[in-house]
Amino acid sequence: MKTYRAAVIGCSRMGAFIDSEVPDYQAIRLPYSHAAGFYAEERTDLVACSDLRPEVMEVFGERYNVPKERQYTDYRELIDKENLDIVSVATQPEHRADVVIYAVEHGVKAIYAEKAMAASMDEADAMVEAVERNGAFFNLGTNRRWHTGFDKMKEVIDSGELGALKTLIIYGNHSLFNGSSHQFDLILRLNSDRRALWASAHITDDDSIFDGDIVREDPNGQGLIQFENGVTAHALLSPRGAEWEAICDRGTVTCWNNGWQWHIRRQADVPGWRNCFVPEAFPEFERASSTANLIKDLVHSLDTGEPSRCGVRVAHASTELIFAFMESHLQSGARVQLPLKGSKLRLERDRAPRQPRFQ
Ligand SMILES: NC(=O)c1ccc[n+]([C@@H]2O[C@H](COP(=O)([O-])OP(=O)(O)OC[C@H]3O[C@@H](n4cnc5c(N)ncnc54)[C@H](O)[C@@H]3O)[C@@H](O)[C@H]2O)c1
What we know:
The chain is α/β, with parallel strands linked by helices. It folds into two domains: 4-143 and 291-310, NAD(P)-binding Rossmann-like Domain (Rossmann fold, 3-Layer(aba) Sandwich), CATH 3.40.50.720; 147-284 and 318-347, Dihydrodipicolinate Reductase, domain 2, CATH 3.30.360. It is 32% helix and 23% strand. The protein has ten helices and 18 strands. The longest helix is centred in the last third of the chain and has 20 residues, at 311-330. The two termini are 34 Å apart. It binds nicotinamide-adenine-dinucleotide. Residues 9-15, 18, 50-53, 56, 75, 90-93, 95, 114-115, 141, 143, 178, 353-354 line the site of nicotinamide-adenine-dinucleotide (NAD).
């Protein structure tokens, strides 16, 4: 069977070394970083890498057997020379669109782009246009879309045995680009990627982070999203952290502790009670690496031509919600209609890259 040539652009934490930060974390199965995922996957060869920091690439090269002559400080040179099938873009969102667009314009057929998709809606629109025109496959690194526990949660919702889905709750929404990129993708997935009609939101940071159209820090936001199928999502800024709940007509499914534990409560006939929900066991599922599953999904698309599980339009839909939250806040919490029109906001933070934990 064909193996696909893969490279990572942005070789820091999520690109290469984040596995060292979570060795004993129950919620996450390794491999977690892009490089560790390609390295473990038998259908991909991790042949090259690119980063602005040669010293980080040197350790990348030692860890993943990528020789010095295949470590590039210029991602364009990497793409021009290495005849790549899959490119990972694990930079920060401010640097994502240019890299993705260059890759698909120069023959790369599959992209694993980290979240958030882009720093502005214009960039997200341009990515959709370039990816589709070049017939490339695209998955956003919103890992829960490939998490077998959330697959099971969606199966329970879709079975209808708890009645129709009505409400989704994100308990710990926090920052829009870093956190809500995951959260919004997850609620879209749990609601079968139905279209959002409008969003209304409030940002808790000082308004000085909005410098005209430039967003100087990743804003923390909470709010409401209304979907076309009548489902409402509530994004809370609560200290409860990475937990989510789907409330159906006759029961609830809740994820605790970022994908470690799941719970079902089903409406029961209990004498003397009108609305009594009793706990029951969540179905068994096999825990697996979501990064590995995302990469296998791209390999499947390259093998068969079938669409990948996320795709660039779904990535665009979750990105649009990030911008709708900011636009709503700037209009004092007004309902912002979707598709979002005319947003010129752009994230531009003054931040140095993090030092990855190599060991
Ligand atoms: N999916 C997840 O669970 C998860 C977890 C952590 C981080 N992330 C996401 O991954 C992305 C990266 O996060 P991080 O913490 O690893 O970031 P980081 O800031 O530590 O690293 C970014 C790297 O990109 C490199 N870079 C910047 N511009 C470049 C260019 N033009 N060419 C090549 N390399 C370039 C930088 O030198 C740096 O090494 C972010 O978007 C973040 O939100 C996702």
